[in-house]
Design brief:
single chain, alpha+beta, Chloramphenicol Acetyltransferase, 2 domains, 7-stranded mixed beta sheet, 16 strands, about 30% helix, Plant_acyltransferase, CAT-like_dom_sf
Length: about 450
Amino acid sequence: MPILVTKNSPICIRPSSSPELEPPPTTNNAAAVVALSSFDKCMPPVPITMLLVFDHPIDNPTHTIKTSLSRALAHYRPIAGRLIGDTIACTDDGVTFVAASANNSTLDEAMAVLPQMPTDLAIGYPNPRCHGGADEPLLLMQVTEFACGWFVVAVTWNHLLADASGMAQFVLAVGELARGGGVSVSPVVRLWDDVSLPGVPSSAIAAQKATLDFDPLPLARLDVAVPSSLISRVKAAAGEFAAGEPPCTVFEAVAAVLWRCRVRAVMSSSAGDESPAPLTIPCNVRKLAGAPVGYYGNCVVMLVVPATAGDVANSDVGDLVRMIRSAKAKVPGMLSSSSINGDSGGGGDDDGEVVQGKEASAPAVWYQALAVSSWRNMGMEGTDMGGGAPVRVTWQPERTMVPACVVCPPRRDGREDGSVDVSSMFVRDEHVDAFKDELARLIADDGSEE
Protein backbone atom coordinates (compact mmCIF):
# COMPACT_ATOMS: atom_id res chain seq x y z
CA MET A 1 0.00 0.00 0.00
CA PRO A 2 1.43 3.44 -0.92
CA ILE A 3 2.52 5.64 1.96
CA LEU A 4 0.70 8.96 1.89
CA VAL A 5 2.35 11.87 3.69
CA THR A 6 0.47 15.06 4.56
CA LYS A 7 2.60 18.09 5.45
CA ASN A 8 1.58 21.11 7.49
CA SER A 9 2.75 24.57 6.52
CA PRO A 10 6.37 25.34 7.44
CA ILE A 11 7.03 27.36 10.58
CA CYS A 12 10.14 29.11 11.85
CA ILE A 13 11.84 27.83 15.01
CA ARG A 14 14.12 30.31 16.74
CA PRO A 15 16.51 29.80 19.67
CA SER A 16 14.68 29.44 22.97
CA SER A 17 14.56 32.51 25.17
CA SER A 18 14.04 30.44 28.33
CA PRO A 19 15.76 32.14 31.25
CA GLU A 20 17.55 28.95 32.32
CA LEU A 21 19.42 28.89 29.01
CA GLU A 22 22.37 31.23 28.90
CA PRO A 23 23.82 31.59 25.42
CA PRO A 24 27.60 31.57 25.17
CA PRO A 25 28.93 35.02 26.09
CA THR A 26 30.57 35.56 22.72
CA THR A 27 27.26 35.12 20.91
CA ASN A 28 25.12 37.40 23.12
CA ASN A 29 25.21 39.89 20.28
CA ALA A 30 22.70 38.66 17.71
CA ALA A 31 24.76 40.37 15.02
CA ALA A 32 27.90 38.31 15.81
CA VAL A 33 29.59 37.15 12.65
CA VAL A 34 31.28 33.78 12.22
CA ALA A 35 33.97 33.48 9.55
CA LEU A 36 33.91 30.25 7.58
CA SER A 37 37.10 28.23 7.97
CA SER A 38 39.01 26.85 4.99
CA PHE A 39 37.46 23.47 5.85
CA ASP A 40 34.00 25.01 5.46
CA LYS A 41 34.91 26.73 2.21
CA CYS A 42 36.18 23.44 0.82
CA MET A 43 32.65 22.02 1.01
CA PRO A 44 30.19 22.73 -1.82
CA PRO A 45 27.07 24.64 -0.65
CA VAL A 46 24.75 21.70 -1.23
CA PRO A 47 22.02 20.27 1.01
CA ILE A 48 22.64 17.08 2.99
CA THR A 49 19.72 15.11 4.44
CA MET A 50 19.93 12.70 7.36
CA LEU A 51 16.91 10.47 8.06
CA LEU A 52 16.37 8.93 11.51
CA VAL A 53 13.64 6.29 11.78
CA PHE A 54 12.21 5.69 15.29
CA ASP A 55 9.99 2.66 15.88
CA HIS A 56 9.15 3.29 19.56
CA PRO A 57 6.39 5.87 20.16
CA ILE A 58 6.88 8.90 22.39
CA ASP A 59 4.30 11.35 23.67
CA ASN A 60 3.53 13.99 21.03
CA PRO A 61 6.79 13.66 19.07
CA THR A 62 6.19 16.78 16.96
CA HIS A 63 5.77 19.09 19.95
CA THR A 64 8.55 17.41 21.93
CA ILE A 65 11.11 17.66 19.12
CA LYS A 66 10.05 21.16 18.08
CA THR A 67 10.57 22.40 21.65
CA SER A 68 13.90 20.65 22.08
CA LEU A 69 15.06 21.97 18.70
CA SER A 70 14.42 25.52 19.88
CA ARG A 71 16.33 24.88 23.09
CA ALA A 72 19.24 23.27 21.21
CA LEU A 73 19.51 26.32 18.94
CA ALA A 74 20.14 28.44 22.03
CA HIS A 75 23.37 26.46 22.45
CA TYR A 76 24.14 26.44 18.71
CA ARG A 77 23.16 29.96 17.66
CA PRO A 78 25.08 30.03 14.35
CA ILE A 79 22.78 27.26 13.08
CA ALA A 80 19.86 29.69 13.49
CA GLY A 81 21.78 32.36 11.56
CA ARG A 82 22.18 33.15 7.90
CA LEU A 83 25.00 32.63 5.43
CA ILE A 84 26.23 35.95 4.07
CA GLY A 85 29.14 35.52 1.68
CA ASP A 86 31.92 33.69 3.52
CA THR A 87 30.44 34.37 6.95
CA ILE A 88 27.53 33.25 9.12
CA ALA A 89 25.60 36.10 10.68
CA CYS A 90 24.21 34.98 14.05
CA THR A 91 20.86 36.69 13.51
CA ASP A 92 18.64 34.19 15.38
CA ASP A 93 16.37 34.17 12.32
CA GLY A 94 15.76 30.49 12.99
CA VAL A 95 15.35 27.25 11.09
CA THR A 96 12.43 25.82 9.13
CA PHE A 97 10.27 23.13 10.77
CA VAL A 98 7.48 21.06 9.22
CA ALA A 99 5.11 18.71 11.02
CA ALA A 100 3.77 15.87 8.88
CA SER A 101 1.60 12.79 9.24
CA ALA A 102 1.46 9.54 7.30
CA ASN A 103 -1.05 6.77 6.89
CA ASN A 104 -0.58 3.51 8.70
CA SER A 105 2.04 1.12 7.40
CA THR A 106 4.37 -1.47 8.81
CA LEU A 107 7.98 -0.64 9.48
CA ASP A 108 9.09 -3.12 6.82
CA GLU A 109 6.81 -1.49 4.23
CA ALA A 110 8.19 1.95 5.01
CA MET A 111 11.81 0.77 4.97
CA ALA A 112 11.29 -0.73 1.53
CA VAL A 113 10.14 2.54 -0.03
CA LEU A 114 12.47 5.02 1.73
CA PRO A 115 14.66 5.47 -1.37
CA GLN A 116 11.58 6.47 -3.39
CA MET A 117 10.46 9.12 -0.87
CA PRO A 118 13.18 11.82 -0.94
CA THR A 119 10.71 14.72 -0.82
CA ASP A 120 7.92 13.13 1.23
CA LEU A 121 9.80 12.61 4.50
CA ALA A 122 12.13 15.61 4.31
CA ILE A 123 12.08 19.30 3.45
CA GLY A 124 14.21 20.20 0.49
CA TYR A 125 15.87 23.41 -0.58
CA PRO A 126 14.30 24.81 -3.75
CA ASN A 127 17.55 24.57 -5.71
CA PRO A 128 20.34 21.97 -6.06
CA ARG A 129 22.68 24.44 -4.35
CA CYS A 130 22.16 26.50 -1.23
CA HIS A 131 22.48 30.17 -2.14
CA GLY A 132 22.54 31.65 1.35
CA GLY A 133 21.18 35.08 2.10
CA ALA A 134 18.65 36.45 4.55
CA ASP A 135 15.80 34.24 3.30
CA GLU A 136 17.52 30.85 3.37
CA PRO A 137 17.82 28.91 6.66
CA LEU A 138 20.92 26.85 7.28
CA LEU A 139 18.88 23.91 8.59
CA LEU A 140 15.49 22.37 7.84
CA MET A 141 13.73 19.73 9.96
CA GLN A 142 10.64 17.61 9.35
CA VAL A 143 8.97 15.27 11.84
CA THR A 144 6.60 12.74 10.26
CA GLU A 145 4.29 10.83 12.60
CA PHE A 146 2.85 7.52 11.42
CA ALA A 147 -0.53 6.28 12.59
CA CYS A 148 1.09 3.17 14.09
CA GLY A 149 3.10 5.34 16.51
CA TRP A 150 6.56 5.36 14.99
CA PHE A 151 8.02 8.53 13.53
CA VAL A 152 10.77 9.84 11.26
CA VAL A 153 13.00 12.85 11.83
CA ALA A 154 14.63 14.35 8.73
CA VAL A 155 17.41 16.90 9.12
CA THR A 156 18.57 18.81 6.04
CA TRP A 157 21.40 21.31 6.26
CA ASN A 158 23.73 23.41 4.14
CA HIS A 159 27.05 21.55 3.92
CA LEU A 160 28.94 24.82 4.46
CA LEU A 161 27.58 24.82 8.03
CA ALA A 162 28.80 21.43 9.23
CA ASP A 163 29.89 17.97 8.19
CA ALA A 164 28.02 14.83 9.22
CA SER A 165 30.01 14.47 12.43
CA GLY A 166 29.19 18.02 13.47
CA MET A 167 25.50 17.59 12.65
CA ALA A 168 25.44 14.32 14.61
CA GLN A 169 26.59 16.29 17.66
CA PHE A 170 23.73 18.77 17.20
CA VAL A 171 21.06 16.08 16.68
CA LEU A 172 22.28 14.23 19.78
CA ALA A 173 21.84 17.48 21.72
CA VAL A 174 18.25 17.80 20.46
CA GLY A 175 17.60 14.29 21.76
CA GLU A 176 19.16 15.00 25.15
CA LEU A 177 16.94 18.05 25.59
CA ALA A 178 13.87 16.11 24.38
CA ARG A 179 14.44 13.65 27.22
CA GLY A 180 14.55 16.46 29.76
CA GLY A 181 18.30 16.48 30.26
CA GLY A 182 21.04 18.94 29.43
CA VAL A 183 23.55 19.16 26.61
CA SER A 184 26.39 16.78 27.48
CA VAL A 185 28.89 18.20 24.96
CA SER A 186 29.28 21.95 25.07
CA PRO A 187 29.63 23.26 21.51
CA VAL A 188 32.76 25.21 20.71
CA VAL A 189 31.71 28.76 19.89
CA ARG A 190 32.14 29.28 16.17
CA LEU A 191 34.13 32.48 16.09
CA TRP A 192 37.33 31.05 14.68
CA ASP A 193 39.30 32.06 11.65
CA ASP A 194 41.83 30.15 9.58
CA VAL A 195 44.50 30.71 12.21
CA SER A 196 42.61 28.56 14.74
CA LEU A 197 42.94 25.32 12.77
CA PRO A 198 45.24 24.09 10.03
CA GLY A 199 43.93 24.98 6.63
CA VAL A 200 43.56 23.09 3.38
CA PRO A 201 45.16 24.04 0.05
CA SER A 202 43.44 26.73 -1.96
CA SER A 203 43.55 24.36 -4.94
CA ALA A 204 41.26 21.95 -3.07
CA ILE A 205 38.77 24.75 -2.41
CA ALA A 206 38.85 25.72 -6.09
CA ALA A 207 38.34 22.13 -7.19
CA GLN A 208 35.31 21.67 -4.95
CA LYS A 209 33.77 24.87 -6.27
CA ALA A 210 34.28 23.59 -9.80
CA THR A 211 31.42 21.15 -9.20
CA LEU A 212 29.08 24.15 -8.97
CA ASP A 213 29.45 24.68 -12.72
CA PHE A 214 27.58 21.44 -13.35
CA ASP A 215 23.94 20.52 -12.97
CA PRO A 216 23.02 17.56 -10.73
CA LEU A 217 23.58 14.25 -12.48
CA PRO A 218 20.47 12.17 -13.32
CA LEU A 219 21.24 9.26 -11.01
CA ALA A 220 19.13 6.48 -9.52
CA ARG A 221 18.51 6.29 -5.78
CA LEU A 222 19.60 2.83 -4.65
CA ASP A 223 19.98 1.12 -1.29
CA VAL A 224 22.79 -1.45 -1.26
CA ALA A 225 23.52 -4.19 1.29
CA VAL A 226 27.07 -5.56 1.46
CA PRO A 227 27.02 -8.88 3.38
CA SER A 228 29.37 -9.53 6.26
CA SER A 229 30.60 -12.72 4.55
CA LEU A 230 31.90 -10.67 1.61
CA ILE A 231 33.43 -8.09 3.94
CA SER A 232 35.28 -10.85 5.82
CA ARG A 233 36.64 -12.25 2.56
CA VAL A 234 37.84 -8.83 1.44
CA LYS A 235 39.55 -8.26 4.79
CA ALA A 236 41.34 -11.60 4.44
CA ALA A 237 42.32 -10.79 0.84
CA ALA A 238 43.76 -7.44 1.90
CA GLY A 239 46.18 -9.28 4.16
CA GLU A 240 48.33 -7.73 6.85
CA PHE A 241 49.74 -4.23 6.70
CA ALA A 242 52.95 -2.85 8.13
CA ALA A 243 53.70 -3.43 11.78
CA GLY A 244 51.57 -1.25 14.01
CA GLU A 245 48.94 -0.58 11.36
CA PRO A 246 45.36 -1.70 12.08
CA PRO A 247 43.81 -4.37 9.85
CA CYS A 248 41.45 -3.60 7.00
CA THR A 249 38.36 -1.80 8.27
CA VAL A 250 34.73 -2.45 7.38
CA PHE A 251 34.61 0.88 5.56
CA GLU A 252 37.73 0.14 3.49
CA ALA A 253 36.33 -3.25 2.48
CA VAL A 254 32.92 -1.83 1.55
CA ALA A 255 34.48 1.07 -0.39
CA ALA A 256 36.66 -1.32 -2.41
CA VAL A 257 33.66 -3.53 -3.24
CA LEU A 258 31.50 -0.61 -4.36
CA TRP A 259 34.35 0.95 -6.35
CA ARG A 260 35.04 -2.15 -8.42
CA CYS A 261 31.39 -3.13 -8.94
CA ARG A 262 30.43 0.36 -10.03
CA VAL A 263 33.37 0.81 -12.42
CA ARG A 264 32.61 -2.53 -14.07
CA ALA A 265 28.92 -1.60 -14.38
CA VAL A 266 29.51 1.75 -16.11
CA MET A 267 32.58 0.91 -18.23
CA SER A 268 30.46 0.53 -21.36
CA SER A 269 29.82 4.29 -21.25
CA SER A 270 33.41 5.24 -20.43
CA ALA A 271 36.13 6.36 -22.80
CA GLY A 272 37.98 3.09 -22.26
CA ASP A 273 40.22 1.32 -19.78
CA GLU A 274 42.51 4.35 -19.52
CA SER A 275 39.74 6.78 -18.57
CA PRO A 276 40.07 8.11 -14.99
CA ALA A 277 37.93 6.43 -12.35
CA PRO A 278 39.07 8.03 -9.07
CA LEU A 279 37.67 7.24 -5.65
CA THR A 280 37.07 10.20 -3.33
CA ILE A 281 36.80 9.75 0.43
CA PRO A 282 36.02 12.57 2.89
CA CYS A 283 38.38 12.00 5.82
CA ASN A 284 37.54 13.31 9.29
CA VAL A 285 40.70 15.08 10.51
CA ARG A 286 39.51 16.47 13.84
CA LYS A 287 42.27 14.71 15.77
CA LEU A 288 44.97 15.59 13.26
CA ALA A 289 43.86 19.22 13.15
CA GLY A 290 43.63 19.50 16.93
CA ALA A 291 39.96 20.48 16.86
CA PRO A 292 38.63 20.80 20.41
CA VAL A 293 35.83 18.65 21.79
CA GLY A 294 32.53 20.24 20.80
CA TYR A 295 33.77 21.56 17.44
CA TYR A 296 30.88 21.08 15.02
CA GLY A 297 32.00 22.79 11.82
CA ASN A 298 33.42 21.04 8.80
CA CYS A 299 36.72 19.31 9.48
CA VAL A 300 37.31 16.92 6.61
CA VAL A 301 39.75 16.73 3.74
CA MET A 302 38.82 15.18 0.41
CA LEU A 303 41.17 12.29 -0.22
CA VAL A 304 41.43 11.18 -3.86
CA VAL A 305 42.59 7.69 -4.76
CA PRO A 306 43.66 8.00 -8.42
CA ALA A 307 43.10 5.09 -10.78
CA THR A 308 41.99 4.27 -14.29
CA ALA A 309 38.83 2.33 -15.06
CA GLY A 310 40.92 -0.59 -16.27
CA ASP A 311 42.99 -0.65 -13.08
CA VAL A 312 39.90 -0.79 -10.88
CA ALA A 313 37.91 -3.24 -13.01
CA ASN A 314 40.79 -5.70 -13.33
CA SER A 315 42.17 -5.51 -9.78
CA ASP A 316 41.47 -7.90 -6.95
CA VAL A 317 39.33 -6.26 -4.30
CA GLY A 318 42.12 -6.82 -1.78
CA ASP A 319 44.48 -4.82 -4.00
CA LEU A 320 41.95 -1.97 -4.08
CA VAL A 321 41.90 -1.96 -0.28
CA ARG A 322 45.68 -1.58 -0.29
CA MET A 323 45.40 1.32 -2.76
CA ILE A 324 42.91 3.02 -0.44
CA ARG A 325 45.12 2.42 2.60
CA SER A 326 48.18 3.78 0.78
CA ALA A 327 46.32 6.97 -0.15
CA LYS A 328 45.03 7.41 3.40
CA ALA A 329 48.61 7.43 4.65
CA LYS A 330 49.01 10.80 2.90
CA VAL A 331 46.25 12.51 4.89
CA PRO A 332 48.54 13.97 7.61
CA GLY A 333 50.65 15.56 4.89
CA MET A 334 47.56 17.27 3.49
CA LEU A 335 47.47 19.34 6.69
CA SER A 336 51.18 20.14 6.74
CA SER A 337 52.40 23.72 6.58
CA SER A 338 53.47 23.27 2.96
CA SER A 339 49.96 22.14 2.04
CA ILE A 340 48.45 25.11 3.83
CA ASN A 341 50.63 27.45 1.82
CA GLY A 342 49.46 25.80 -1.38
CA ASP A 343 52.74 24.03 -2.18
CA SER A 344 52.72 20.51 -3.58
CA GLY A 345 54.86 19.00 -0.83
CA GLY A 346 53.79 17.17 2.29
CA GLY A 347 52.94 13.95 0.46
CA GLY A 348 50.15 15.58 -1.51
CA ASP A 349 51.59 15.58 -5.03
CA ASP A 350 49.42 12.88 -6.58
CA ASP A 351 46.27 13.88 -4.72
CA GLY A 352 46.73 17.54 -5.61
CA GLU A 353 47.16 16.77 -9.28
CA VAL A 354 43.99 14.72 -9.39
CA VAL A 355 41.89 17.30 -7.56
CA GLN A 356 43.17 20.25 -9.57
CA GLY A 357 42.68 18.33 -12.80
CA LYS A 358 38.98 18.12 -12.09
CA GLU A 359 38.52 21.85 -12.42
CA ALA A 360 38.34 21.62 -16.20
CA SER A 361 36.55 18.27 -16.28
CA ALA A 362 33.34 17.79 -18.19
CA PRO A 363 30.25 16.28 -16.52
CA ALA A 364 30.87 13.05 -18.43
CA VAL A 365 34.18 12.65 -16.61
CA TRP A 366 32.53 13.31 -13.25
CA TYR A 367 30.32 10.27 -13.85
CA GLN A 368 33.42 8.06 -13.86
CA ALA A 369 34.33 9.19 -10.33
CA LEU A 370 32.86 7.90 -7.07
CA ALA A 371 32.65 9.53 -3.63
CA VAL A 372 32.20 7.20 -0.65
CA SER A 373 31.48 8.65 2.80
CA SER A 374 31.03 6.89 6.13
CA TRP A 375 28.51 7.76 8.83
CA ARG A 376 29.64 4.87 11.00
CA ASN A 377 31.14 5.69 14.40
CA MET A 378 29.83 9.28 14.39
CA GLY A 379 27.19 8.69 17.04
CA MET A 380 24.00 9.75 15.25
CA GLU A 381 22.65 6.22 15.66
CA GLY A 382 22.59 6.93 19.41
CA THR A 383 20.10 9.79 19.06
CA ASP A 384 17.23 9.28 21.53
CA MET A 385 14.16 11.51 21.49
CA GLY A 386 12.65 9.70 24.46
CA GLY A 387 11.75 6.23 23.16
CA GLY A 388 15.18 4.82 22.40
CA ALA A 389 17.66 4.95 19.55
CA PRO A 390 16.52 4.97 15.91
CA VAL A 391 16.08 1.65 14.19
CA ARG A 392 17.81 3.10 11.15
CA VAL A 393 19.84 6.15 10.13
CA THR A 394 20.31 6.84 6.46
CA TRP A 395 21.33 9.41 3.90
CA GLN A 396 18.27 10.59 1.95
CA PRO A 397 19.41 12.51 -1.12
CA GLU A 398 17.05 14.19 -3.53
CA ARG A 399 19.85 14.88 -6.00
CA THR A 400 23.64 14.94 -6.06
CA MET A 401 26.31 16.82 -7.98
CA VAL A 402 28.64 13.79 -8.23
CA PRO A 403 28.13 10.00 -7.97
CA ALA A 404 28.13 9.38 -4.24
CA CYS A 405 27.13 7.02 -1.46
CA VAL A 406 27.13 6.88 2.33
CA VAL A 407 28.01 3.81 4.40
CA CYS A 408 25.29 3.98 7.07
CA PRO A 409 25.46 3.19 10.78
CA PRO A 410 24.37 -0.33 11.75
CA ARG A 411 20.64 -0.85 12.11
CA ARG A 412 19.58 -1.15 15.71
CA ASP A 413 17.74 -4.39 15.02
CA GLY A 414 20.65 -5.65 12.97
CA ARG A 415 20.44 -7.82 9.87
CA GLU A 416 20.33 -11.58 9.83
CA ASP A 417 23.29 -11.75 7.46
CA GLY A 418 25.17 -8.88 9.14
CA SER A 419 25.03 -6.77 5.98
CA VAL A 420 26.28 -3.19 5.94
CA ASP A 421 23.74 -0.71 4.55
CA VAL A 422 24.78 1.84 1.92
CA SER A 423 22.60 4.68 0.63
CA SER A 424 23.62 5.65 -2.88
CA MET A 425 23.08 7.82 -5.91
CA PHE A 426 25.97 6.70 -8.07
CA VAL A 427 24.65 5.03 -11.22
CA ARG A 428 22.22 6.04 -13.92
CA ASP A 429 19.03 4.06 -14.35
CA GLU A 430 20.49 2.13 -17.26
CA HIS A 431 23.38 0.90 -15.09
CA VAL A 432 21.41 -0.20 -12.01
CA ASP A 433 20.96 -3.81 -13.13
CA ALA A 434 24.58 -4.09 -14.24
CA PHE A 435 25.75 -2.86 -10.82
CA LYS A 436 23.47 -5.31 -9.01
CA ASP A 437 24.77 -8.13 -11.20
CA GLU A 438 28.40 -7.23 -10.45
CA LEU A 439 27.72 -7.15 -6.71
CA ALA A 440 25.81 -10.45 -6.83
CA ARG A 441 28.65 -12.04 -8.78
CA LEU A 442 31.20 -10.89 -6.22
CA ILE A 443 29.03 -12.12 -3.34
CA ALA A 444 28.57 -15.54 -4.96
CA ASP A 445 32.26 -15.90 -5.85
CA ASP A 446 34.20 -18.45 -3.83
CA GLY A 447 36.90 -15.90 -3.06
CA SER A 448 39.28 -16.78 -5.86
CA GLU A 449 38.96 -13.28 -7.37
CA GLU A 450 39.79 -11.38 -4.20
